[in-house]
Amino acid sequence: MSAITAPRHQFQAYPFHMVESSPWPLLMGNALLSMMVSAVLWFNGIEYSSLLLTLGVLSVLFAFILWFRDVTIEGTYLGDHTLIVQKGLTMGVSLFIVTEAFFFISIFWAYFHSSLAPTVELGSQWPPAGIETLNPFAVPLLNTILLLSSGATVTYAHHALIYGNRRATLIGVVLTLVLATVFTLLQGFEYANAGFTIADGVYGTCFYFATGFHGVHVIVGTLFIGVAAYRIYAYHLTSDHHIGFESSILYWHFV
Is the overall model pTM greater than 0.70, yes or no? Predict the structure, then answer.
């Protein structure tokens, strides 16, 4: 314990974090492989594939929880997240968000490729005949307002944390989680009442692929901010050391 409680400069001559051996990357890789293989089997209607998919999803969640538990211990109790390490983590999250942006660019590219110049196979019109589109000024507009509002509340929480206002921070984070949850419920309602499915040609595929993956990102961002909210409540994060919360905010603004 003496090495842990002593100032870092007394036992480490550099400010970087040398990560110890960990089983979680290997576990995560195997969990993701099993989840994707079982998902392909489920899409093709293979027997018992739904059970395998459930086990795959649980394995991924299990690996996530254990991996981020270790990261939390390193940053909160062991002091491994120095200023230089925090800068590296922020850069890593930023580069990850860039890759996500290009992923969605490919989806938009597919949509505009089909909509701006509909081919004969699409009936030379967009949306194709027989597709009853959703009213963009109904649930989609409301969901847009909810997401923009959640961006404002999480920014309010961030600034409140910087100025040491713990109560305002928790209020802002809780409001963000409520708005995100309402968004997800409304998107589920929208899917349940849509007049087309993902199997209805290019339009259905583009619509559900884009909005579905966006919905998944909203759920992941909600969990991300939820974990940060618990860590704020548990006094893990301070006004000058809250890299996990800042990372969740960056991700949420991207969403």
Answer: yes
